[in-house]
Design goal:
Distance between the termini: 159 Å
Radius of gyration: 51 Å
Oligomer: single chain
Helix content: under 10%
Length: about 625
């Protein structure tokens, strides 16, 4: 193979195109076509240098080797000769030009990036590597090419790499595979990392797990802007699942991220170990996030594909607060979009452990509100707090849930047996809360009864006759007036039928009894009187005559003779004849002819006993 070698001379190209082409001869194993051993080479911005074969910048002859590229330097693969870059033996490659590299970048010397662009544009897997641990700091690193599968990869082999404080990382539709190494982006601009997120497959940064420290994408921040970490993996299922970190302050911070493209249990973060607020966690992937520099909180926004990954409404963190389990991170915000949904934890502070995972949160344990329940009662309303998607209720034997199952309010008809009412809340994702229960001890209500007696005209005395030790009374007198006395009296101011109701209660349970009083009728007609002058019951007197419009009372002795007659309702018989003779003890007959105010005949007849006390 022909090798173009410059040694201990100065080579300068300006406003020119120089193409160097090698060919294989014999059994040569040489991999380098352009070999600079100690010369000083300069290309100005308009120069184009195209090398068909490998390029090596070397200083084995201890000369002041500097290759300064300010133009466009292409190192192409041709005829089986890989278009690789080798920087060796303390040589220096510098300048502000463009490097188009079709194969590997091996840096064992000095690369001073300036404002240069390095484009890894090969169609086979390319490696950024070093045999002596030298980390390359690129300015602008661009990944392009047409390779598929493994040949999409631009791989950090054995070493990490950096993007300088003014540079950018442009992934396009390629996979930047860091393995267990780290790609450090030192430019704090939120736009310093870009990728093609809609290609198939998208461009992303993949990293491998290592129990002593995994590979990652690292970004320096100094804004409160959204910093995208385009994390993904081609290990197994090709999966692009980015996340966004949004720092809470404009001071300098450093955050790292990687996608674990597998069940986290494989890496020692058992997905079966959950705190009591977590229902389940994502078995497909998780993220590692660290905060190696700075002290500011940051919002964590994790993206997922609803169709492929299922739905999630939480984020859990491994090992804190409780060690060795996934701990629910509390209230989050969820959003639906295309192509990704996301779960956002705002203003997160605890970056002490790195694994984070999408989770489904248990709904909060409901709190039950319920009434005093009476035996053999209906319509008892039980309510559960919260805004879950559904609620599942149960009640003891002898009761029945008549309405509201699956909602936060149910109606229960109760029997006589005490027992628990239990409810659980369910999320839209099918997670069920811890159960909440209340023990219901039903009470029997009093058996309500009462009597009523008129005292005079429209005045009535009401007497509670309830059994069951009532402690509360509610009277409705049928004319818009009420009382909570046990044995109230009431004077009506109008005639007509009145419905009197008493509700007697105890321990929140009650029973109601009602009765009709017809104030158009005469009720209080005594059947005995004692006209002995003691002032007690001396006169046969008919009360409650206010609701009649005429009055004619006649009293007859045993022989049918009229001994008393009155057309005035206020007049009563004092037990004497019209001539003033005391009537003897005995039974007398009375006849009252009257009509009500409504014109109804209310005439009545009966017997009255006269008894004179000795």
């Amino acid at each position: 193979m022909d090798i173009f070698t410059i040694s201990k001379k100065t080579f300068y190209t300006s406003l020119a195109i120089l193409v160097l082409t090698g060919c294989l001869t014999g059994n040569s194993s040489a991999q380098i076509f352009f070999f600079n051993n100690g010369a000083e080479i300069y290309t100005d911005p308009a120069a184009i240098l195209h090398v068909n074969g490998g390029f090596q910048n070397d200083n084995s002859m201890a000369a002041p080797n500097v290759f300064e590229n300010n133009g466009t330097l292409t190192i192409a693969t041709i005829g089986g000769i890989p278009g690789s870059v080798f920087l060796t033996n303390n040589s220096t490659l510098q300048g502000n030009g463009t490097y188009l590299v079709e194969q590997d970048w091996t840096n064992d010397a000095v690369f001073s990036a300036g404002s240069s662009i390095v484009n890894l544009d090969g169609n086979t897997q390319q490696f950024i590597t070093s045999t002596n641990g030298t980390i390359t700091t690129f300015n602008n690193l661009i990944l392009t090419g047409a390779g598929i599968g493994t040949n999409r990869k631009k791989t950090l082999q054995s070493v990490s790499a950096k993007i300088g404080s003014g540079g950018t990382l442009t992934i396009n539709d390629r996979e930047l595979e860091t393995l267990t190494n780290t790609m450090y982006v030192l430019n704090p601009s939120s736009a310093s990392v870009g990728n093609n997120a809609i290609s198939n497959p998208p461009g992303f940064v993949s990293s491998s797990f290592n129990s002593g420290g995994s590979g990652s994408l690292s970004r320096v921040t100094n804004l409160t802007s959204a910093y995208v970490f385009p994390t993904g993996s081609s290990a197994g299922t090709i999966r692009y699942r980015p996340l966004i970190l949004k720092p809470a302050a404009v001071t300098s911070n450093t955050y790292t991220a990687r996608l674990g493209n597998n069940d986290a249990s494989i890496d020692g973060f058992n997905t079966a170990f959950l705190d009591t607020n977590t229902c389940t966690v994502n078995p497909l992937f998780y993220h590692e996030i660290t905060h190696p520099a700075g002290g500011d909180n940051a919002s964590i926004d994790i993206f997922y594909d609803l169709t492929s990954d299922g739905g999630w409404d939480g984020i859990a963190k491994w090992n804190s607060i409780t060690p060795n389990i996934w701990n629910n991170m509390g209230t989050v915000a969820t959003a639906s979009a295309v192509p990704f949904n996301d779960v956002l934890k705002a203003n997160w502070a605890d970056f002490s452990n790195s694994p984070y995972i999408l989770s489904r949160q248990k709904p909060s344990k409901p709190v039950i509100t319920y009434p005093s329940v009476c035996s053999n009662s209906s319509g008892n309303i039980f309510s559960a707090s919260g805004n879950a998607a559904a609620y599942t209720w149960s009640s003891p034997a002898g009761s029945a849930i008549t309405s509201g199952q699956n909602t936060n309010t149910v109606t229960i008809d109760w029997g006589i047996t005490p027992g628990p009412v239990t409810v659980t809340a369910s999320s839209t994702l099918g997670c069920i809360s811890s159960p909440s229960s209340c023990l219901v001890n039903s009470s029997f209500p009093p058996a309500t009864a009462f009597s009523s007696n008129s005292s005079e005209q429209l005045a009535y005395q009401f007497t509670d006759l309830s059994t069951g030790s009532a402690t509360q009374w509610a009277w409705d007198f049928g004319d818009g007036t009420v009382s909570n006395l046990q044995n109230p009296s009431h004077a009506y101011t109008s005639c007509g039928s009145k419905k009197i109701c008493l509700t007697a209660g105890k321990n929140g349970c009650s029973d109601t009894a009602c009765s009709i009083i017809d104030l158009n009728s005469i009720f209080n007609i005594p059947n005995v009187f004692t006209p002995d002058g003691d002032g007690i019951n001396d006169v046969f007197f008919i009360n409650n005559t206010a609701c009649i419009k005429d009055f004619h009372l006649e009293i007859f002795n045993r022989w049918g003779m009229t001994i008393f007659e009155s057309v005035q309702s206020g007049n009563g018989w004092d037990g004497y004849t019209p001539s003033g003779v005391a009537s003897p003890d005995g039974t007398y007959y009375y006849l009252l002819k009257t009509t009500s105010l409504a014109g109804k005949d209310e005439s009545i007849k009966g017997f009255i006993s006269l008894v004179r006390k000795k």
